[in-house]
Design brief:
The complex is a heterodimer of chains A (342) and B (251). Chain A is mainly α and 342 residues long. Chain A is 76% helix and 0% strand. Chain A is built from 14 helices and no strands. Chain B is of the alpha/beta class. Chain B has a 6-stranded mixed β-sheet, with helices on both faces. In chain B, a hairpin with a 2-residue loop joins strand 4 and strand 5. At the A-B interface, helix 9 and helix 10 of A face helix 2 and helix 5 of B.
């Protein structure tokens, strides 16, 4: 099978998987609806009652169109977004172990979010995402300042700076939690840091969806430059890529997107690390081929993980980060071993 | 075509290149030789913007490389750097295609013309039969040849090659040097092998501890004095039996 056919097959299969898992996630839950009705409810919202006549209850309508659909879309955005960020960061620091969290972004977001929970600042629903986003941005700024030297930022320095800043911020988070008079804070913080899409509503979906679209639009023209970056800073410069500016630009835009995603969903682990690797195993490392695959597989994986998270222990819902790690970790190990055996 | 004008490079407290002036004419092949640490790579790196000179200017095609866009240098110079990461998981053809990057707009796809240039570049380094192999799984010499092909794929007017014969077997070493000479374009090649430099290059520039020791035709430069003074090696110089180029025979 030549590369072209293979890429197309993988894209078709992953898109079908995405649609199947999306449908499943919309159908499964306490209120049962069949697939046809579910899609008609959604279609009805889009094209209006003139075309599709409602024959369902108002409860079904609310649950499908206002609860499950935004939740599925949020999970899809976050999964695709984290996969995109992971892909970019792995190329930028030329390190396969890198993920969205490597530059201290998640730790920064956690400090912001936990500060809001700890000090009970105003209306949490609005403030928490903003504080998490601010924390992510602040952490990135510190990491970039620490890693800055002469010439383009060195990938190794960048990773080391990220690790150092993350541990300091992690300590601050722990300190805030442990010194809190509120005994339930630790639970809330743990819940938040493991991620979840339970807060999804149409109005909370807007920012991450726009963020993802903008990031894709920014990334698309840079796919070739990302490939060039793989060959090392010196070679990339010789091939006409301004490595310094490209690296800073990619780090800042990845951080902005990660900050947005983390602020609405908490830290959903493993997606950003694992999905780029799966995409590479499927279609190779050329970013022009793997980015679309990473986006669809990332979305499908996050939606599937969320479906498991909210159904496996009914009526309790477990944080989606637990599912992504429990499912993703062993799968990743299996893939790695299979690839090595070849 | 390529001019180093009073170039000095300082890294930390060390003066790695000290006031070097060297003019390379269009169509000329110049070998850059000298002992380890004499500044060959450092001087070359200033020409493709990997290292900024502390003083002096480098002009490529009449333009200061440090004030023109990186893209201009990417289009004009074909570079083989000395150290490149070897572990990137692309195919050989993909790696060579990256050599076209400076010629492509952000939304351009690879064209048939690009693919033809990639094949031609692979042919010139004898790697066309391995185009679909993983770059990371090649031997050191094969990788080196692929990186040469990458530099050629951009159809550069100047080649800047830093020890391109590293890891190459005898046949490919000769093949590469012949290709550089017969290509007819401008080339600056850092080399350790004085015999190769003498046989295939129009002029030889000798660096010693960051300074230009001398520059001239092979017969003027490859002498017992050079070997004694610069390399600290006692050697006789014999003419090559076929083309009379000077050959080093250490005593």
């Amino acid at each position: 099978m030549n590369t072209h056919t293979r890429v197309r097959t993988v894209l078709v299969v992953s898109t079908v998987a995405l649609l199947v898992v999306t449908t499943a996630a919309i159908l499964v839950g306490s209120v049962g609806v069949d697939a046809a009705t579910a899609w008609r409810i959604i279609g009805h919202r889009i094209v209006g009652p003139a075309v599709i006549t409602p024959d369902w209850t108002r409860a079904q309508d609310l649950i499908i169109a206002d609860t499950r659909l935004p939740r599925v879309l949020l999970a899809g955005c976050v999964g695709a977004g984290l996969a995109l960020v992971g892909t970019v960061i792995q190329a930028v620091v030329r390190n396969p172990l890198a993920g969205p969290g490597i530059l201290g972004v998640s730790a920064g977001a956690a400090v912001g979010a936990v500060a809001v929970l700890r000090f009970g600042l105003g209306s949490q629903a609005m403030l928490l995402p903003l504080a998490a986003f601010g924390g992510a941005l602040a952490a990135m700024t510190i990491v970039l300042l620490v890693a800055r030297g002469r010439g383009p930022i060195d990938p190794v320095r960048l990773v080391l700076a990220g690790v150092a800043v993350s541990s300091v911020l992690g300590a601050l988070t722990s300190l805030m939690v442990l010194t809190s008079p509120d005994q339930t804070l630790a639970g809330q913080v743990l819940q938040w840091t493991l991620g979840g899409f339970g807060a999804a509503r149409w109005d909370t979906l807007l920012v991450p969806a726009v963020g993802l679209l903008v990031a894709c639009a920014v990334m698309f023209p840079l796919r070739r430059s990302l490939n060039v970056l793989l060959t090392g800073d010196e070679n990339a410069t010789a091939l006409g890529v301004d490595v310094g500016r490209l690296r800073i630009g990619l780090i800042v835009s990845s951080t902005l997107l990660t900050g947005i995603l983390v602020s609405v969903s908490g830290v959903v682990g493993f997606v950003g690390l694992m999905i780029p690797h799966i995409a590479r195993m499927l279609v190779g490392s050329d970013h022009r081929r793997m980015v679309p695959v990473a986006l669809t597989v990332g979305a499908a994986f996050a939606i599937g993980a969320d479906l498991v998270a909210r159904t496996v222990m009914i009526p309790q819902e477990i944080p989606v980060g637990i599912v992504t790690a429990l499912v993703g970790g062993p799968y990743f190990v299996w893939l790695l071993r299979r690839t090595m055996a070849r | 075509m390529l001019r180093f004008d009073r170039v000095s490079v300082r890294v930390g407290d060390n003066l790695l290149v000290d006031d070097v002036t060297l003019d390379i004419a269009a169509g000329e092949t110049v070998a850059l030789v000298g002992p380890n640490g004499s500044g060959k790579s450092t001087l070359l790196r200033t020409a493709y913007r990997a290292l900024r000179p502390a003083a002096g200017t480098v002009t490529l095609d009449g333009r200061d490389v440090w004030t023109t866009p990186v893209r201009f240098v990417g289009r004009t110079a074909g570079v083989v750097a000395q150290h490149s990461p070897a572990d990137f998981p692309l195919t050989v053809a993909d790696v060579v295609m990256l050599g076209r990057a400076a010629h492509k707009g952000m939304f351009d796809a690879d064209t048939a013309a690009d693919r033809a240039l990639v094949v031609a570049a692979l042919e010139s380094v004898d790697m066309v039969d391995r185009a679909e192999r993983d770059f990371a799984r090649l031997s050191g010499g094969e990788r080196q040849r692929v990186l040469v092909a990458q530099a050629l794929a951009g159809q550069p007017s100047v080649l800047l090659f830093d020890e391109p014969t590293n890891h190459l077997d005898l046949r490919h070493r000769l093949g590469l040097m012949r290709m550089i000479r017969d290509r007819g374009g401008t080339a600056v090649v850092a080399l350790h092998d004085l015999d190769l430099a003498a046989r295939f290059c129009d002029r030889i520039a000798v660096l010693e501890r960051g300074r230009l020791w001398g520059v001239g035709a092979p017969a003027e430069i490859v002498t017992s004095e050079l070997l004694a003074e610069v390399y600290g090696v006692d050697a006789d110089i014999l003419p090559h039996p076929r083309d009379r180029s000077p050959m080093v025979v250490p005593t």
